[in-house]
Design goal:
single chain, 411 residues, Rossmann fold, 7-stranded parallel sheet, 41% helix
């Protein structure tokens, strides 16, 4: 009898990571029925999509409070879907705020609960582990040190590798082992992993990459970085803007990001090429409206985040990044970065003083130090422009540290 699985993912990264799992399951056991609350990539991988994560894209204490009624309705619908379909296993991907109560419900029905990408209890809210012990049957973690952390607290788990690290390695051509057809990190432009931008596949969004810089040379050569690798000959530095995936954070950060780069460009009289990584959950129109309201121009590129980061790291550019998985991706490309984030005053107060959150970027959390600079709350263009000159000079060393942390043998 064919198995029935139910996946729950609440954002773009979860959709991507779950889609890889679904493809592998479908390849090994084609008859497996897979339902999901997720996104387009999970659906494309072979799951039946019952609810899209972009309809539930809510983050921040104030935002959650404002949308409590909507969240309750989604939670009730999710419970009804689990009860109606009675899967053999429910697979929850990260997103503990929504998924952990559902895991408790699924467990109460006697359904096997599999959790992939553990809540970051080692960074904040360790109290969640008490609930996790009771309701999770299988916990798969993506950082080697998490095995000891959770196991020592009575929560057995298995390190299964880090999907972001594996995806970046694959993009760079360092490991094609176990390649899953359909991964969309770099489209079909596999040759772009090389050391040259020449020969870019026609139609790629980065086909209009930096033209020759005809401006007079100045002493400014980008942020104060070292060992940035070969520049693309006679090409402008690529500045990668990763303003997040949720509407509120993109609306808050993108205008400041662009203005900051423009300010710095004017000050140093050095032309750059700006590339904005578009979130799959948002539309081209959404970005165009933001740019129109702010009277700004920028090239919005979808499904090519790795290409943009590679170009920035190799051309002597840098990245302005919203807190999240993108900070880890950026570090794995050895790209200098400045992390910025803004939330409501109440959310900031609770995180800073009640949960005692010291860092917001995943890179700093993992390395337990200020490896990359964080600008919080005051994300004005002027503040960001000044901070760009203070980007840490050891981006290559940060990359090596992160790779060393993630490349440990699987437990």
């Amino acid at each position: 009898m064919a198995k029935k699985l139910f996946f729950f993912a609440g954002e773009a990264s979860g959709d991507q990571h779950a889609s890889v799992m679904i493809r592998k399951i479908k390849a090994a056991e084609p008859d497996t029925e897979i339902l999901c609350w997720g996104g387009d990539k999970m659906q494309a991988a072979g799951a039946v999509l019952l609810s899209h994560y972009k309809d539930r894209n809510i983050m921040g204490l104030v935002e959650v409070i404002k949308n409590l009624g909507l969240i309750r309705r989604f939670m009730q619908q999710a419970r009804e879907d689990i009860l109606q379909h009675r899967p053999d296993k429910v697979v929850f991907v990260d997103n503990p705020g929504f998924n952990l109560p559902l895991a408790k419900y699924a467990h109460s029905l006697g359904i096997f609960v599999h959790w992939y990408i553990a809540p970051k209890a080692w960074a904040w809210n360790e109290g969640r582990i008490k609930t996790m012990r009771k309701v999770i049957d299988q916990l798969d973690v993506i950082f080697p040190f998490e095995v000891e952390f959770f196991t020592s607290r009575g929560m057995p788990c298995t390190y299964v590798g880090n999907p972001t690290y594996e995806a970046v390695k694959e993009f760079r051509g360092e490991s094609l082992e176990g390649r899953v057809e359909g991964l969309e990190f770099s489209g079909e432009s596999l040759e772009f992993r090389g050391e040259s931008l020449e020969g870019r596949v026609e139609g790629g969004e980065l086909s209009e990459l930096p033209a020759k810089d005809q401006t007079p040379k100045t002493k400014d050569q980008g942020p104060k970085t070292k060992d940035q690798g070969p520049r693309f000959k006679d090409q402008r530095p690529v500045i990668a803007l990763l303003p997040g995936s949720r509407p509120a954070e993109v609306s808050s950060l993108l205008p400041s990001f662009i203005k900051a780069v423009k300010l710095r460009e004017e000050t140093n009289e050095r032309k750059v090429t700006i590339k904005v990584a578009g979130a799959p959950s948002l539309s081209q129109e959404f970005y165009e409206n933001i740019l129109r309201e702010s009277q700004l121009e920028a090239d919005i590129v979808f499904d090519k985040t790795f290409d943009i980061l590679h170009a920035a790291s190799q051309s002597g550019g840098y990245a302005l990044v919203a807190s999240g998985t993108a900070t880890l991706e950026t570090s794995l490309f050895g790209c200098p970065q400045l992390v910025a984030y803004k939330v409501s005053p109440l959310t900031y107060f609770v995180g800073k003083y009640l949960f005692n959150i010291e860092y917001v970027s995943l890179v700093n959390i993992l390395l337990k130090r200020t490896a990359v600079q964080e600008i919080l709350q005051d994300v004005s263009a002027e503040r960001l422009s000044r901070a760009i000159d203070e980007i840490h000079p050891d981006s290559r060393e940060i990359r090596r540290e992160i790779e060393g942390l993630l490349s440990n043998s699987r437990a």
